[in-house]
C-alpha cells in the first residue's frame, strides 16, 4: 500500500467517518431526549405521536431512508441535500428513535419518592426534571448510550452507498486501485476497532464523572485476604450461615 493511498483516500476517509459519527450522535441525542421525555407526557396524544415516531424509525431501514433522502426527496420536493447531510439526517433519526427508549426507561426508573419530594418543595415540572430527575437518570443512560454510539459508528459504513467518502468508501477505491482486498479490509477492521475503543473509553470517563456528580463513587476493593479456620470454627460458621446467625 502506497503513501498516496493513505494521504488521499484512507486518512481523509477516517476524518469523514469521525465527523459523521459526531454529527449524527449530536442530532440523535437531541432527538432521543426530545422524544424520550415526551413519552412520559400526561397527554395521550403526545404519547401516541412520540410512540408512533419511535415505531416508524425503529421499523424502517436506515439505508433505505438514506436513499430516500438522497435520491427521492430531490425529485418529489425539489429539495436537494448534500449526501453527507442526508446521511447524518437518516442516522440521527434512526438512532435517535432507539435512544429515546433509553431516555424514557432511565427517567421512569427514578424512584417516585424523589419526584414526590420535589413536589413537596413546590418545584415546577421543569424544575423537577432539571434538578431532580435528569441528574439521577443520566448516569443510568450512559452505558446503553455507549453501546448505541458504537452501533452508530459501525452504521456510518452505510453512507458509502450514497457516495460519501468515508472509511468504507475509501477502502473500496483503494481495493479497486491496488487489488489488495485482504490487506485493505483487514486494515479497515482495525480502524473501526480503534475508533470504537476510543469512544468506549471516553464514555466510561463520562459515566464516572456523571456518577461522581450525584455522589456515586466506584467501590475501592482492597487486596483479598484469606485465613485458615480451625475445624471447630468452620463448623460454627457453617451453622451460623445456615440458621441465619452472624459470623463471629
Describe the sheet with the most strands. none
State the order of secondary-structure elements, H for helix, E for strand.
HHHHHHHHH
Structural class: mainly alpha
CATH superfamily: MetI-like
Please count the helical segments: 9
Which class in CATH terms? Mainly Alpha
Tell the overall outline.
flat
Number of strands: 0
Gap between N and C termini = 69 Å
Mean pLDDT: 84
Strand content: under 5%
Residues in helices, as a percent range: over 70%
Could you say how many structural domains there are in total? Answer: 1
**What is the CATH architecture descriptor?**
Orthogonal Bundle
Quick tags:
9 helices; 248 residues; mainly alpha
Q: How does this model look, in words?
A:
There is one protein chain. By secondary structure, the protein is mainly alpha-helical. It has a single domain (3-216), classed as MetI-like fold. It is 77% helix and 0% strand. The chain contains 9 helices and no strands. The protein has helices at residues 3-38, 44-58, 62-77, 83-108, 112-120, 125-155, 167-178, 181-213, 231-243. α2 (44-58) crosses α4. Residues 221-229 and 234-248 have low confidence and may be disordered.
Amino acid at each position: 500500500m502506497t503513501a498516496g493511498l493513505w494521504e488521499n483516500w484512507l486518512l481523509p476517509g477516517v476524518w469523514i467517518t469521525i465527523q459523521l459519527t459526531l454529527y449524527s450522535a449530536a442530532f440523535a441525542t437531541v432527538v432521543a431526549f426530545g422524544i424520550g421525555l415526551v413519552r412520559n407526557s400526561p397527554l395521550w396524544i403526545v404519547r401516541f405521536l412520540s410512540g408512533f415516531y419511535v415505531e416508524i424509525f425503529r421499523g424502517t431501514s436506515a439505508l433505505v431512508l438514506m436513499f430516500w433522502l438522497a435520491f427521492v426527496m430531490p425529485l418529489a420536493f425539489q429539495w436537494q441535500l448534500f449526501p453527507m447531510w442526508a446521511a447524518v439526517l437518516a442516522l440521527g433519526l434512526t438512532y435517535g428513535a432507539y435512544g429515546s427508549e433509553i431516555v424514557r426507561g432511565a427517567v421512569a426508573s427514578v424512584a417516585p419518592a424523589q419526584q414526590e419530594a420535589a413536589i413537596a418543595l413546590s418545584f415546577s415540572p421543569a424544575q423537577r426534571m432539571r434538578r431532580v430527575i435528569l441528574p439521577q437518570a443520566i448516569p443510568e443512560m450512559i452505558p446503553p448510550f455507549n453501546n448505541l454510539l458504537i452501533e452508530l459508528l459501525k452504521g456510518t459504513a452505510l453512507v458509502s452507498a450514497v457516495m460519501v467518502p468515508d472509511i468504507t468508501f475509501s477502502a473500496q477505491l483503494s481495493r479497486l486501485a491496488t487489488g489488495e482486498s485482504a490487506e485493505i479490509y483487514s486494515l479497515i477492521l482495525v480502524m473501526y476497532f480503534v475508533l470504537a475503543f476510543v469512544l468506549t473509553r471516553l464514555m466510561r470517563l463520562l459515566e464516572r464523572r456523571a456518577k461522581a456528580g450525584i455522589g456515586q463513587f466506584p467501590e475501592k476493593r482492597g487486596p483479598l485476604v484469606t485465613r485458615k479456620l480451625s475445624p471447630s470454627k468452620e463448623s460454627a460458621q457453617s451453622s451460623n450461615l445456615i440458621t441465619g446467625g452472624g459470623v463471629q
